[in-house]
Design brief:
The complex is a heterodimer. By secondary structure, chain A is an all-alpha fold. Chain A is 71% helix and 0% strand. The N and C termini of chain B lie far apart (39 Å).
């Protein structure tokens, strides 16, 4: 066995992974070769150093805290979107109520001529659009629209209660 | 706390966790967390990432605890998960350096708390202690520079004290491959650190 073959097998030799024949052949070479013996000693020192490498101190967190932090959360709406989102949702709900329910909700169940119903919806839509022109504030727009609706109903005698 | 004093074998604790006992999983977490963080740290070198990787491994273990057949092999299962996460991150993060050497070593505490004071060893004079610390840093750098295929078995075998059969199971490679990679990894370390270990 030559030096190259010996050095390739030093770890296996020290770990006892070689066959008995290979183990004996390598031991014979080591007896004769001081350079390879130094490699053998270097591997022993390396293993000692690896075994004594200090572990990093770790502070163990609470399991429940870790579990909660790693459990998928639905993405939260950013704070800056909350007020506009609420305003938009309110406006959409009001418009839906206005178009679908509004014309029939508080009126007497008498049949209404189609032309009159259409003009009622058109008038309310116009009032909504006019009210929404109040500086872009959806809440003020809704309040103004509702006040207009109430005053019109008082005038025509069709109260909401 | 470093997991000392957690009673019960892994097999018992996994069986209890499988039956819905969250306290048993908490005990497993306290028992193995530091080892798993250290393993992740040796593989990829960043303390914050190491903690995140270790926690992800535990969350996955908790989610799949019903499927862990051999409770005694839980630690190997966690190491395997860490290996997978590190490999995935290494693939996707080739644009940034994998290692941050400052995070390694016993003088820094994972979790962001104050540094741990080194315990004085009276058997070493100051210059020898300094030299030993310097050698450890050189060794850690050399380990970090090994390709992942050599680093994984080397860390598992020499730093996590697993035998080659266990290492082969964790890495899902034949035992012969583990031995070969350990030989080549150690040979590279000897070459890189010739000045320290040639005597």
């Amino acid at each position: 066995m030559n030096c190259t073959e010996t050095r390739e097998r030093i770890v296996a030799y020290r770990s006892g992974w070689l066959s008995p024949d290979e183990q004996a052949a390598l031991a014979g070479h080591l007896d004769r070769c001081a350079t390879c013996r130094r490699q053998l000693d270097a591997d022993a020192r390396l293993c000692e150093a690896l075994a004594s490498l200090p572990a990093t101190e770790v502070r163990v967190p609470g399991w429940e805290q870790v579990r909660a932090a790693h459990t998928a959360q639905p993405p939260a709406l950013p704070r800056w979107l909350l007020v506009p989102a609420f305003g938009a949702a309110s406006a959409a709900a009001a418009l839906l109520w206005l178009v679908v329910v509004g014309p029939h909700a508080s009126r007497t169940p008498e049949p209404v001529p189609q032309a009159e119903a259409s003009s009622g919806i058109a008038r309310q839509a116009h009032m909504m659009m006019a009210a929404s022109d109040l500086g872009g504030d959806p809440n003020r727009a809704i309040v103004a629209w509702y006040a207009g609706l109430q005053s019109e109903r008082s005038a025509t005698g069709t109260g909401t209660h | 706390m470093t997991g000392i004093g957690v009673a019960g074998s892994d097999g018992d604790l996994v069986a209890r966790a499988r039956a819905g006992d969250d306290g048993a999983f908490d005990a497993l977490f306290r028992k193995h967390y530091a080892k798993v963080v250290n393993f992740a740290l040796r593989l990829q070198g960043d303390t914050d990432d190491a903690e995140d990787i270790a926690q992800t491994a535990f969350v996955r273990a908790h989610a799949h605890v019903g499927r862990i057949r051999d409770g005694q092999a839980l630690l190997a299962w966690l190491y395997r998960t860490v290996v997978n996460i590190v490999r995935d991150r290494a693939k996707s993060a080739s644009r940034k350096p994998l290692w941050r050497f400052a995070d390694l070593g016993s003088t820094r505490t994972a979790g962001g708390s104050a540094p741990v004071e080194e315990v004085a060893d009276d058997s070493l004079d100051p210059s020898r202690r300094l030299m030993a610390a310097e050698r450890d840093r050189a060794l850690e750098r050399a380990i970090a520079e090994l390709p992942l295929e050599f680093r994984e078995p080397l860390v598992l075998h020499h730093l996590q004290q697993m035998d080659v059969d266990e290492v082969a199971r964790v890495l899902r490679v034949p035992v012969g491959t583990v031995k070969s990679r350990l030989s080549r990894g150690r040979s590279r370390l000897r070459e890189a650190l010739a000045g320290w270990f040639d005597g």
